[in-house]
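Deliverable D4.2, example record:
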Amino acid sequence: MWKEGINKRLLVPIFHGREHLNAQRWMRALQAGNKLTRLAFEHQVTGVPHTRIEGENVPNFQAAFDIDTIKDLPYLKEVLQSGLDLFERLYGYRSHYFVPTNGPFNNSLEEDLYRLGVKYINTVKIQCEPLGGENTKPISVFWGRKINGANFT
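Output generated by the structure prediction step:
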């Protein structure tokens, strides 16, 4: 039915990521012995509210393209490549539009997205670009902003 809806132009799926999980952050929290992350793991869930509970910080696991360190970027490049390939196999076309899961997105990945065929990115008007750790950089995003000929908005 999805393919029928696509063929009739009733819906046009776009790429939102390979999974709605920051796998690197999740694994680091498990390896560090974060009690609440371990509890979530034991109950087979990853959608844990990112807050401070019982004196323990629970990171945002749903923001798949957020980074804790610059060393996270090579893995995210692979996620983009394999995710877009999977999207194309599932839907029969390459997505030219990308919406990062839960918002955070390091802009150095824009070049990779462009190389992979993405022409449009949807972010908030004032994007807090993750730089690693707690560091972010506010970026004013405007419609029609171009990078290498691509419209990233």
